Amino acid sequence: MLSRQFVRENPEEVRDALAKKGVDADLDRILDVDEEWRELKRKGDDLRHQRNEVSSRIGRLKQEGEEEEAQEAIERSQELKSELEAVEERADELESELERLLLTLPQLPADDVPVGADESENVERRREGFDDLRDLPEEVTPHYDLGEELDVLDFERGAKVSGGGFYFAKGDGAKLEHALVQFMLDVHREQGYSDVFPPIPVNSKSMEGTGQFPKFVEDAYRIGDVNEADYEDDDLWLLPTAEVPVTNMYRDEILLSEDLPLKHQAYTPNFRREAGEHGTETRGIVRVHQFNKVEMVNFVRPEESEERFEGLVAEAEEVLERLELPYRILEMCTGDLGFTQAKKYDIEVWAPGDDMEDGPEEGGRWLEVSSVSNFEAFQARRAGIRYRPERHESAEHLHTLNGSGLAVPRIVVAVLEYYQNEDGTVDVPEALQPYMGGQEVIEGHEKVGESALGSGEK
């Protein structure tokens, strides 16, 4: 969140950021509440000063035997007390409102972020891996068809068990997901990351700390939605990303300068309601309600965050480079920048199984597999995460950054489509073969049950 002092002293800069990000927030109300709150604080200080003076007079008047004047002073002290209580009550109400309103203000975009209205004005920085593409089948089968043909993805049974937007990865499909997770974790360990395995349920305070709440509460899965009476004492949500628990590990704590930079990685399943509500992307596993992901979270000194941002991009890219998957880097313009981010790059892998207008010349489509974000002090201020530059110095808010390293289902999509062969089998990327017991090819499995039989064989 933005500090109230910053908002008070830089209203036009905040107003400009709201316009650039396309966020509707009542800045005028925030300024009015802040002004009234400050006026009440001044009034409260004046009333306390007056009451202290009157209290001093009461004792002196009693010593001097001035009982009538002492009684008048006591009555005046009680009047001042009542006045002060009313002022403090109103100030507390305004304080709560101000804190709530400040949560609706987004992070300011960094100065070098391109200005644009929406995703159509994002800037492609570069493409990698297109100079030496592997030979693809004349017609690449989309992952959702190929996955069912090989019986490594099962959408019908996933929907039966959990509803739309869920799937089973089976046999070599499950092995591929496990292999990708372990491979990614190993890559990031080499890059200096320490492992964290966090709780999957998180509380509202944690969701607020990283900026998911209050803005994105409708996208979250609450534990206890079915029968809230059974869960009235719980304040728990299924995490939408490991960013939430890992960042909030240090909520309301003070770290030391020598602790930084801190680089944590976490594998978790993730849960989001919004997935699967985007037309044609509901097919397959591009947008699902539950998905596996490895997340990288960094805590750094403010002066190091810009350099660390570039390093984080490179660390996410290395996974794609080792898998030899083609990809591109997009910089988000102001209108497509998230609520919490000062700067963000998306890393998009190329999946050749569907022809889409925004794909490369070879056809196919782009799938976002990582969003690398610099939040500067925005999350740290919301979550109360600070550090001491020196042990004798006052604590300051540090900077947080994160990036997926990477989102697993979309990498599965890219592997099934890019490493697909003419006969319908799929080569296992060389970097993954040790994680799949040396397996080089996914050939598929025999389907199980009567549904696998032709209509004349039942």
| 3D shape | elongated
Can you summarize the main beta sheet? Answer: 8 strands, mixed
- According to DSSP, the number of beta strands is 18
CATH homologous superfamily heading of the largest domain: Bira Bifunctional Protein, Domain 2
User: Helix proportion of residues, in percent?
Assistant: 25-40%
Query: What's the Cα radius of gyration?
Result: 28 Å
Tally of separate helices: 12
Would you give the CATH topology of the largest domain? Answer: BirA Bifunctional Protein, domain 2
Beta-strand content estimate: 15-25%
Unreliable stretches: 275-280
Tell me which CATH architecture of the largest domain applies here.
2-Layer Sandwich
Features:
458 residues, alpha+beta, Helix Hairpins, BirA Bifunctional Protein, domain 2, 12 helices, elongated
Show the helix and strand layout:
Blueprint: H1 4-9, H2 11-21, H3 27-63, H4 67-102, E1 123-128, H5 143-149, E2 153-154, H6 155-162, E3 168-169, H7 172-190, E4 194-195, E5 201-202, H8 204-210, E6 221-222, E7 237-238, H9 243-248, E8 254-256, E9 262-271, E10 290-300, H10 305-323, E11 327-331, E12 343-351, E13 365-376, H11 378-383, E14 386-388, E15 396-397, E16 399-407, H12 408-418, E17 426-427, E18 441-442
Parallel strand pairs: 4-9, 8-14
Antiparallel strand pairs: 1-11, 2-3, 5-7, 6-7, 9-10, 10-16, 11-12, 12-13, 13-16, 14-15, 17-18
